[in-house]
Amino acid sequence: xxxxxxxxxxxxxxxxxxxxxxxxxxxxxxxxxxxxxxxxxxxxxxxxxxxxxxxxxxxxxxxxxxxxxxxxxxxxxxxxxxxxxxxxxxxxxxxxxxxxxxxxxxxxxxxxxxxxxxxxxxxxxxxxxxxxxxxxxxxxxxxxxxxxxxxxxxxxxxxxxxxxxxxxxxxxxxxxxxxxxxxxxxxxxxxxxxxxxxxxxxxxxxxxxxxxxxxxxxxxxxxxxxxxxxxxxxxxxxxxxxxx
Length: 244
Ligand code: UDP
Known about the structure:
Layout: E1 7-10, E2 13-16, H1 20-32, E3 37-42, H2 44-52, H3 54-61, E4 65-68, H4 71-79, H5 90-103, E5 107-112, H6 115-128, E6 133-138, H7 145-155, E7 159-163, H8 168-176, E8 183-186, H9 190-194, H10 203-207, H11 211-218, H12 223-226, H13 229-243
Parallel strand pairs: 3-4, 3-8, 5-6, 5-7, 7-8
Antiparallel strand pairs: 1-2
Helix pairs in contact: 1-5, 2-3
The structure holds uridine-5'-diphosphate.
Uridine-5'-diphosphate binds near residues 114, 165, 168 and 189.
């Protein structure tokens, strides 16, 4: 049932080598078979965080799948001479799963983002994915986690999307994945993007692999986060030497 995928280890984090189409096929099959699935969408920032927090690294490596959400991961795999097939953006998996859920009357639960964003999300999802059953929505600034977990349990969803940013979302999932036989996926700022509160880079920028630059220009506070990249690349280069 579990489809083993080739893995590429980058600084101790094991990435699954897949494509968007293949990955969506694997997930839909698992949902149809009522298998719990924990998906991590990781970028260099998450890899570096995991390197400094061993418990978190352990949590990620125990997820069912970790996909390369970020061109930095693709570059890292290339530098290690173990290239990955393609970048699989968490946002793309998210929208494909919503479409499939709508076509197959599945139930989804959404946790994350600011209250106004999650309210918009409810409207947009009802309009654009009319066949999808919304099992519940919860903004990402709650204090009573037990209550959220209980709401998920009662909704008995097929898919739970958690968009509270990393590492919060992965920690939430690992504590609560036992509440439903569902796909649980951490997807960062995806609710902001789906509702138009944050714009994704135009296709051209994406094709040039410059989405990260576009986002940093639009949201200068993100430049700080890019500062991690040189250290990430240096550590990957070190791994390459050690692998030899
Ligand atoms: N967020 C949340 N709860 C928190 C902190 C953040 O729901 O306690 C939300 C925030 O509103 C945003 C998302 O988490 O929608 C994080 O987005 P970001 O762009 O930082 O995530 P990335 O995709 O870069 O991991």
